[in-house]
Amino acid sequence: MLTTPEAGHVATAPGPVLSAGDCLRVTIHGTGSHGSMPHLGVDPVVVAASIVVRLQSIVARVIAPAEFGVVTVGSIQAGTKANIIPESATLLVNVRAYDLDVRARILAAVERIVNAECAAGACPKEPEFDHYESFPLTSNDEETTRRVTAAFVEHFGAERVHPLAPVPASEDFSIIPDAFGVPYTYWGNGGFLPGAPVLPNHNPGFAPAIQPTLRTGTEAAVVAALAYLAGTG
């Protein structure tokens, strides 16, 4: 989301602008039993519930107050009946950070907490971790961003160009320029008309105004490319 989400505006900034992101599938093993006889089993739902609550302490207690991190459990899947203790529970965990050291500490804390809660719950098997998705940190090159921002100001006017506050979302496009050692800059476009509700991605009501959003985005791409090409060769 931009500092100003109004359609027809753009925003840029040097340094980290999109967070690194990771998705983990965590499988917790229990021992199935009848719901009326919980003492004969190991309830993975209870263990999973403890893990979900404890994971929220990572941001509050593991990383420093000045550091940024997000830990989200977006899915819990376990069991099919109210009166049956299932054999396993699965959590889908999402992690975000603007700093790779912070990212590593959060991921280590997730694994440490899951292992500890499974041990405390007497789970019959070690938990399983599937790190199934990862996105790199998007950190804009300072000189490239300066050049593109200046071109935006010249084309759109200073009143339509804004600082881009870091966004806790992730992208994978930087993998390609990073692989070739090419500097890059990522910018944002506003997409909502004045007075319209500002909604985030994945909200069912998310619907940016087609115009002037599409026109502004196209102009920004052309202006940025010309500004960068003008400084090469």
Structural commentary:
- It is a single chain.
- This protein is α+β, with helices and mostly antiparallel strands and 233 residues long.
- The protein has two domains: 10-18 and 138-230, Zn peptidases (Aminopeptidase), CATH 3.40.630; 21-135, Alpha-Beta Plaits, CATH 3.30.70.360.
- It has helices spanning 44-55, 57-62, 100-120, 142-156, 175-180, 210-230; strands at 10-12, 15-18, 20-29, 33-34, 69-77, 84-85, 88-97, 128-135, 138-140, 161-163, 188-189.
- The protein has a four-stranded antiparallel sheet. The protein has a three-stranded mixed sheet with strand order 10-1-11, covered by helices on one side. The chain has a two-stranded antiparallel ribbon with strand order 2-9.
- α1 (44-55) runs antiparallel to α3 (100-120) and α4 packs across α6 (210-230).
- The model has no long low-confidence stretch (mean pLDDT 93).
In short:
The chain has helices at 44-55, 57-62, 100-120, 142-156, 175-180, 210-230; strands at residues 10-12, 15-18, 20-29, 33-34, 69-77, 84-85, 88-97, 128-135, 138-140, 161-163, 188-189. The protein has 233 residues and is of the alpha+beta class.
Mind summarizing the main beta sheet?
A: 4 strands, antiparallel
The CATH class of the largest domain:
Alpha Beta
Give the helix/strand class: alpha+beta
CATH architecture of the largest domain: 2-Layer Sandwich
The oligomeric state is single chain
Count of helices?
6
Mean pLDDT over the residues: 93
Shape call: elongated
Distance between the termini: 35 Å
Total strand segments = 11
Assign the CATH topology of the largest domain: Alpha-Beta Plaits
Would you list the SSEs in sequence order as H and E? Answer: EEEEHHEEEHEEHEHEH
